[in-house]
From TrEMBL:
Molecular function as annotated in GO: transmembrane transporter activity
Name of this chain's protein: Erythritol transport system permease protein
Cellular localisation: Cell membrane
Organism: Desulfopila aestuarii DSM 18488
Keywords: Cell inner membrane, Cell membrane, Membrane, Transmembrane, Transmembrane helix, Transport
InterPro entries: ABC_transp_permease
Recorded GO CC terms: plasma membrane
Keyword Transcription regulation among record annotations: no
Keyword Acetylation carried by entry: no
Membrane topology note: Multi-pass membrane protein
Membrane-crossing residue ranges in chain numbering: 20-42, 54-75, 81-99, 111-136, 142-163, 184-211, 242-264
Length: 353
C-alpha cells in the first residue's frame, strides 16, 4: 500500500474526528438541556407538570432578559457586573413611582404617572445606567470589570436609598390616581401565554435580527473579534460599546419591572447575583468570553439550562448552599469548555490546511 495513501487516510480520519468533536461542542447546550430535563423528570415526578412548567418559564424569562443583554456585551470583549443591581434599582424606581409618586419639593406637589409612563421612566433609568458604564469605558478607558463593578455598588446603594432599605408593598396602584395595572406585567397573559414570555420572544427575535442582519450587529462582532482592525476599517468602536452597555441596562430594567410586577412589590435586594447567572447563561449558550462569538438563540437555550437546573434542584430539596456551589461549578465548566472549543477550532483549521 502507498505510504502517502495511508497518511492521507489517517489525516482524513483525524480531521473527521476533530469535526465531530466540534459539532458536539457546538451542540453542548442542547445536550446539557436534554440531560438535565431527563434527570429531573426521573428524580422529581412533578417536574414536568403544567404548574411547574409555568413557574419555570417565568424564571427562565428573567434570566434570558439579562443574558441577551450580556451576550452583546461579552461579544464585544467586555463584561457587565452591574445588571443585577440595575434590576433592583429598576424595580425600586417603578415601585416608588407607583407607591409614593414623584414628589417635587419646590412646587410642593406629587405626580402620579400612568403605567406606560412608569414603564418608560424605569426603562430610561436602566438605559442611563448602561450609558454611564459605556461612558466610563469609552471616554475614561476604565476597564469594563472595574467600571461595572463600581456601578454595581452605585445602583444597589441608590435602590436602598429610595426607600431607606424598605420594600414598596402592594403595588396595585389606585384608580383615583390612574396608576393601576402594574401586576398585569408579571401575571398577565396573551392568548394564554404569559406576558413575560411574549416580551422575551419579541426581544429575542429583535436582538437576533440585529446581530445577524444589520450593520450594527456586524460591527459588534468585529469589535469583539479584533478591536484594532475594526477601528481601522471605520467601525465607530466607542459608539458600538456605548450601545451594548445601554442595551444591557435596558434588558436589566425589563427584568426588574417583571420581577416587581410578579411580586406586586419591589425590594432593593432584588437581582442580587443575577449578573453571574446572566454570564453563565451566555457562556453556556456558546458566547466566548474572549469576544467575537455568540448567538442569541444559544444564549436563550443557556438560560433554559440554568432555569431548569435551578428549579429542578429546588424541587429535589437541594440546599441553597449546594445550589450556589453547583451553579459556580457550571460557570467554571462552561468557561473551560469554551476554551477547549477555541483550541479545537484551531486544530481543525490546521488539519484542513
Amino acid at each position: 500500500m502507498n505510504i502517502n495513501t495511508v497518511s492521507g487516510t489517517a489525516g482524513s480520519v483525524k480531521s473527521n474526528n476533530l469535526q465531530l468533536g466540534m459539532l458536539l461542542l457546538k451542540l453542548r447546550t442542547f445536550i446539557a438541556l436534554f440531560l438535565v430535563v431527563v434527570y429531573f423528570s426521573i428524580m422529581a415526578p412533578n417536574f414536568l407538570s403544567m404548574a411547574n412548567m409555568l413557574i419555570m418559564v417565568k424564571h427562565v424569562a428573567i434570566y434570558a432578559f439579562l443574558a441577551i443583554g450580556m451576550t452583546f456585551v461579552i461579544i464585544t470583549g467586555g463584561i457587565d457586573l452591574s445588571v443585577g443591581s440595575i434590576v433592583g434599582l429598576a424595580g425600586m424606581v417603578a415601585g416608588g413611582l407607583i407607591y409614593n409618586g414623584l414628589h417635587i419639593p419646590f412646587m410642593n406637589v406629587t405626580i402620579y404617572f400612568h403605567l406606560p409612563m412608569v414603564i418608560l421612566i424605569t426603562l430610561a433609568v436602566g438605559i442611563a445606567c448602561g450609558a454611564l458604564n459605556g461612558f466610563l469605558i469609552t471616554r475614561f478607558k476604565v476597564a469594563p470589570f472595574i467600571a461595572t463593578l463600581g456601578l454595581l455598588y452605585i445602583a444597589r446603594g441608590a435602590a436602598l436609598l429610595l426607600s431607606d432599605g424598605k420594600t414598596f408593598p402592594n403595588l396595585v396602584g389606585s384608580e383615583k390616581l390612574g396608576n393601576t395595572g402594574f401586576p398585569w406585567l408579571g401575571s398577565g397573559t396573551i392568548l394564554g401565554i404569559p406576558l413575560s414570555i411574549c416580551i422575551l420572544v419579541v426581544l429575542g427575535l429583535a436582538a437576533a435580527y440585529l446581530a445577524k442582519c444589520t450593520p450594527l450587529g456586524r460591527h459588534i462582532y468585529s469589535v469583539g473579534g479584533n478591536e484594532r482592525a475594526a477601528l481601522l476599517s471605520g467601525v465607530r468602536v466607542n459608539r458600538v460599546k456605548m450601545f451594548v452597555y445601554m442595551f444591557a441596562g435596558f434588558c436589566a430594567a425589563i427584568a426588574g419591572l417583571i420581577i416587581a410586577s410578579q411580586l406586586v412589590a419591589s425590594h432593593p435586594a432584588s437581582g442580587e447575583t443575577f449578573e453571574l447567572t446572566a454570564i453563565a447563561a451566555a457562556v453556556l449558550g456558546g458566547t466566548s468570553l474572549a469576544g467575537g462569538r455568540g448567538t442569541i438563540g444559544g444564549t436563550i437555550i443557556g438560560a433554559l439550562v440554568i432555569g431548569v437546573l435551578g428549579d429542578g434542584m429546588v424541587m429535589m430539596g437541594v440546599s441553597t448552599f449546594w445550589q450556589m456551589v453547583i451553579k459556580g461549578i457550571v460557570i467554571v465548566a462552561a468557561v473551560v469548555v469554551d476554551q477547549f472549543q477555541r483550541d479545537l477550532q484551531s486544530r481543525v483549521a490546521l488539519a484542513e490546511d
